[in-house]
Amino acid sequence: MLKNSFISIISQKEKEENRGSVEFQVFGFTNKIRKLTSHLELHKKDYLSQRGLRKILGKRQRLLAYLSKKDKVRYKELISQLNS
C-alpha cells in the first residue's frame, strides 16, 4: 500500500496560513486520490468509491486549469512538486 508515500511537502506553518490556497487544495485532493486508488486496487467492485474518485479527479482538474490560466509560474512549480 502507499500509505506512507503521501505528500507532506507543505510545512505545518504554511498549512495554518494557506488552507484555502489552490496548492493546498490540490495537495489534499492528490492525497485522497492516492488513498482511494490503493483502496480500489483491493476492492475492485466498490462503485461508490469509484464515483468519489471521479468527483475528486474532476475537482482537482478544474483547480489545475484555473491555476494554469491565472499564474503559469505557480502552476509549473505545483506540477513539479507533485511529480517528485
TrEMBL record:
<protein>
    <recommendedName>
        <fullName>Small ribosomal subunit protein uS15c</fullName>
    </recommendedName>
</protein>
<keyword id="KW-0150">Chloroplast</keyword>
<keyword id="KW-0689">Ribosomal protein</keyword>
<dbReference type="GO" id="GO:0006412">
    <property type="term" value="P:translation"/>
</dbReference>
<dbReference type="InterPro" id="IPR005290">
    <property type="entry name" value="Ribosomal_uS15_bac-type"/>
</dbReference>
<dbReference type="InterPro" id="IPR000589">
    <property type="entry name" value="Ribosomal_uS15"/>
</dbReference>
<dbReference type="InterPro" id="IPR009068">
    <property type="entry name" value="uS15_NS1_RNA-bd_sf"/>
</dbReference>
<dbReference type="GO" id="GO:1990904">
    <property type="term" value="C:ribonucleoprotein complex"/>
</dbReference>
<keyword id="KW-0687">Ribonucleoprotein</keyword>
<comment type="similarity">
    <text>Belongs to the universal ribosomal protein uS15 family.</text>
</comment>
<keyword id="KW-0934">Plastid</keyword>
<dbReference type="Pfam" id="PF00312">
    <property type="entry name" value="Ribosomal_S15"/>
</dbReference>
<dbReference type="GO" id="GO:0003735">
    <property type="term" value="F:structural constituent of ribosome"/>
</dbReference>
<comment type="subunit">
    <text>Part of the 30S ribosomal subunit.</text>
</comment>
<dbReference type="GO" id="GO:0005840">
    <property type="term" value="C:ribosome"/>
</dbReference>
<dbReference type="GO" id="GO:0009507">
    <property type="term" value="C:chloroplast"/>
</dbReference>
